[in-house]
Amino acid sequence: MTWVNSVVQGMLLGGQYALIACGLSLAFGVMRIVNLAHGDLAVCGAYLGLVLSSALGVPVWVTLPLLLPAAFAVGVALQWLLFGRALRRGVLAPVLVTFGLSVMIENLLQVGATSDPRGLNGGSLALASFHLGSLVVSWLFMTAFLTACAVLTCLQLALSRTSWGRKVRATADDLDTARLVGIKVQPVFASVAGVAVATAALAGVFIGTIGTFDPLAGTNTLIFAFEAVVIGGIGSLWGTLAGGLALGVTQVVVGQINQDYAVLAVHLLFLAVLTVRPGGLFTSSHAIREIGAQGAAG
Amino acid sequence: MTAQVAVSRWSRTASGFTGVSLLVVAFLAAVPYVFGGPAEQPLITLLTFIALASMWNLLAGFSGLTSFGQQAYLGLGAYALYLIAEHGINPFAGIIPAAIAAAVISLPVAGLVLRLSGGYFAVATLVVAAVFQIAATLSPSVGGTTGVSLPGLAGYSDVLREALIYWATLAVAVVSVAGVYLLVRRTFGLDARAVSSDQVAAASAGVRVGRIRLLAYVVAAGLAGAVGALIALQTLYVEPTSVFSIQYSVDMLFMVLIGGVGTIEGPILGALVLFGLQETLSAYGAWYLVIVGGLAVGVTLIASRGIWGYASERLGWSFLPIGYQVGRES
Amino acid sequence: MRPLLEVQGLDVCYGDFQALFGISLTVEGGSALALVGANGAGKTTLLRSIAGAQATSSGLIRHEGTDITSAPPYQRVARGIALVPEGRKLFPSLTVEENIKVGASASASDAWPLTRIYDAFPLVARCRKRRASTLSGGEQQAVAIARALASGPSLLLLDEVSLGLAPRIVGELYQILAQLREAGATLVIVEQDLRRAMSACDSLVCLLEGRVALAAAVAEVSIDQVVAAYFGEVRS
After folding, report:
1. Is the pTM of this model over 0.95?
2. Residue B216's domain spans which residues?
3. Which end of chain B has fewer CB atoms at under 10 Å, N or C?
4. Using CA atoms, how far apart are residues C107 and C151, in angstroms rounded to an integer?
5. How many Å lie between the alpha carbon of B162 and the closest alpha carbon of chain A?
6. Does the residue C109 lie in any domain?
7. Cα separation, C62 vs C50, whole angstroms
């Protein structure tokens, strides 16, 4: 029975990974930028949640109406100040700039908040659990999972049904032609960056409530997010969900056998998918070219 | 009457510089005799920086491979040296085998990560470094989380050990700079820069993109392994968190960006700058890294050719030329 | 009456390479201009410069009297200038209908709503739900024109519409262009087929290596003169 429990817990965990990953996937699909500071921005979301919930004396959920728009604004600002400029400077620049940004964020957090691990006040939700047959499921995990699914669904609907979504997909397909047919590309980029950072911050809040966080947690968060995207496949939000689920289930199931090997197993799964099916499980065919079929040439 | 045009790959400045650098190397080799212990330590740090910067430039500057996971091979080289010393071999003799071990292990890894490029390649290298670190942590034979101390150096006095490490570091730094230079000039030629600026165009022009990236990755892994072995010799202790630290990548990124991507002279300049910054700002702890990160961002966006890039453009200098110059035949 | 489009002394450089040298031409409202020339003569560069997708080094572009030389593409689309690019360039992951809607969203004009486009292009209407990447060449070209029309342009620029298409399909496309002319649109057509270009248009500009080699009304010039300008032979 513990195996079923592990799989269920793993899936719930996987939902969180998908939430942190979807911003990365979107940003790459549309802007061709791999934001190496993405994990750190999620951690910033957790710290912001800490500051707001301490200052207002409420569980962190209450601060979300303030936190999420703030995170969106940060994304827009970063796009305008850094990413947009970096993209114009060639292929290497975005990687170098986002890595430099990651270093700055991690160390600014260390200066501001010390390296002690912190936790977020989840209120009564953090402690409650319910029974599903013979399984005990924490409400917090369930909420995290359902939120991830809800966010992904809303994003997918927005992309496929709205005028904004069409513009985003057109820009992702062909930037030059998108400009040509009169799409204002800067607002598209800015809104995508905003969504990416907002979803990262939301994921950070869940991570911070379920576990602890510290200034250096960003790199590992980035790695997990990235692995979820690659396993699931670029260019598909549902692929990202599948990737996240694969990560979560692997981590919990292996952890059941031997906790020390849990994270390693996840990395090895990623490397295995990279070997066998580098495009990921659900990639749209034209997106495979983007991540590096070039590397196979020659 | 049409002027005769000559295409040359060298210049008098370059000859002059090569002469000067040979003198500098000879001088540096004499330091332990002339100045002794106190001068060696900072120079070892500086020379290590130079070796690492030159290596990272080979990857990112000349082959378009932005790797933030070179610490994987640093750690690998350190642990390899430990295992070699464990088997009774003199650790100093083990530096080259450790480097070779790192290079050999990088081959299958290359088969995986070189399928990617750009940002995706970068994160994949982070994953590889994480895997190596976890593997070391889980291996009791190399001390797990606690680490191991390096055996086989009991017979050396501190003075002699330090001097030998100094010479070994000098040798690795020289090999790194000279090796990358010759590699880029001969084997890669202009191909490497074509690869780093536009892989698809380069491939369609017949450049063997895959071969260049593989060669660069393996050579860089070997160099990193050598540096890792040197670090083990210095600290006498090999422990996962420090030897696989991402800080090495942060340093390499900074040095190459500040100094000038895609030039041979640039990383040397960048190493000097980082060394200077570290000496002056180390008291400020995390702020030092904020500044380092900020400068890296600023340089990429504003002065993307680095200090050397600007200098050589303005002044027309090229101490270690890797391109072609067209001039009049005299 | 002031011309719809005026180009004066336009220079375009790609880094060190100069593609256009002092191009000057005018396009009257309601007319059709044929832009011809060998490959590499600068025709695509000129159209892209007019549409705003290509930066210019010097010179002037005026639309309805207003200087638009430094206006970004979205402003030009809003003003009524639309380009059907070389190679169609549809958005592959979007459906036909979504491609057209994207074209429409860039301008407030309602001259060509979706219903009118589907009436005029039954071919497009039939494949409206299909992904653009699954269409044939002729279908793609029709959709590309429809996408440009969706923004309700007064000036339509078409770059090599007949490239790679069977003659019958090209004939159908030119019938559509004739209908557009009747509806009052102004066209600039880049075309390799000189005879077709001359029969469909009122005036002609021939480019040679980035310069205007010949500019005349179609009625006043013979095809031999055009061919001579095309290849750079000097004839009186």
Report:
1. no
2. 28-246
3. N
4. 5
5. 33
6. yes
7. 9
